[in-house]
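Below is how a single chain appears once it has passed through the pipeline. First comes the sequence as given, then the structure the pipeline wrote out for it. We keep one example in the README because the format questions we get most often are answered faster by looking than by reading.
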Amino acid sequence: MRAVLRAMLKGQFRPLLLGLALSVLVLAMGAALLGLSGWFITATAAAGMAGAGLIFDVFRPSAGIRFLAIGRTAARYGERLLTHDAVLRALSALRIRLLTAQTRAPFESLTRLRAGEALNRLGADIEALDGLLLRLLIPVLAAIAVLAGAFGMLAWLTDPAIAGWVAGSFALGALVVTALAARPAIRASRALEDTVQDYRRHLVEMLRTRRERALLGKLAESRETLGRLEHQRRRRAARLDRVERGTGAALALVGAVAPAGALWLGGSAVLDGTLGPAVAAIGVFGALALAEATAPLRRALGDYGRIAQAARRVAPILRPAPQAPTGQHATTGALSIEAVTLRRAPGRAPVLDGVSLRLSPGERLAIAGASGSGKSTLLALAAGVLAPNAGTIRLGETPLDALAPEALRRAVTLVPQRAALIQGSVAENLRLAAPDASDGELKEALEAMQLAGVIRARGGLYSPLGPRGAGLSGGEARRLVLARALLRRPAFLLLDEPTEGLDTPTAQAVLENLARALPQAGILIAAHRDTELAFADRVLRVMPNGHLAATQSPERSEIP
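Resulting structure:
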């Protein structure tokens, strides 16, 4: 929570500090308003009983009461405006920082990431974290400051015993209530948040796959699951509500004990002649007002579990990313993998063991093997998005980990199996790879990937696509991703099953056009069909033991 708090305070410290000061002022003016009102009522009654009502000054106390009432309202408005604006700005900056950090996650994490679920989780966590400032930090600091100030003022105006009782009873009462209610409140809050997130996840998944579920006859099962989760959510919300109501009742008891004790101590002082009735009333009415300082504790305890869970998930993402190398930029020569070994976890059998290969400019090399044998992993290593446990990967004479990232990305382009498209136009998707590309260059890339006619029929380069490229078939989306990779003009193009979803004639044409458009590029393919194997100059196979073995490439036609 400290890490998240530091991130939220960055850039918003001054407005939040001013908002905290106004929050303290609101509570202080509320206590002063009731204290002055109690003094005024009691003093007026005493003056009337003494026959001094005609000479008693009612104007200055009345003016003070009006000033405190109006000032408290203005301070409350300013406090809400400042703190909520600052918190919203802090959350906006935090959201950008978290999304940026998520894009820098390790390659294997990103390949397993489900965008809808991740965004839903992230949005819920950020929504919960607004309570870190608004319901925890600011109310607690304001309450501590006001209770300390109230002790000093009451000790000066009334009696140290009254001041100690009022401030001490609220402080001790808040601590006792927290100690008793914190654990059940946190448990209930966490359980409710887990159920809410389960409900959201199932609802999003059902909406995303509703057609498939309808075809398989599973919509009723999905509705039943959502109904069960909603019933569970209501039960857990009711349980948290009971804990909050119990906390509120305990705080109300503290708020009754404090003025009752102040009344007894003040009455004793009046009988002893050490205090006047009007002065003693200040302690009683001030204690009534100070109950407002501890009232937010009820909501804070109810939200603490949810806030802590969100902070626990968010804090690791906020850790500074490792410094990217700023080293060499030379990227000429062959792409070499030298005695590379990769294990998924210590002690487990290697996915790849002592693998070596060399891909020269203009060469086409296919990697064959059973599903799960390590073909995709080998491409990720060659692209520098995975680091080997042993061995070296070089571009020319330069190890990949010594290259500046921008130089590596200019030289090597990886098209994984799950390459992504975004909601937007066809042109916007293509220009993710080449922001300065002209419309003519975009059309040439589409023509090369046998997609120009499809896009013209849809309305051209600026025709819209839905989320994740919705509107294109699987094969069309695949060809659009390949067109985007082509626009980068890399020295080495790494393709993971590039013709998946394409018929054989289209697959052959796409591969031939890639070779024609990038005659000097080395092309490395994780192959799963004969068309891709026939395209290659050489074929290597990943064996079950993680080694590479040469194999005979099928006959292929010469590419002009």
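The chain has a mean pLDDT of 86.

See the next section for the split statistics.
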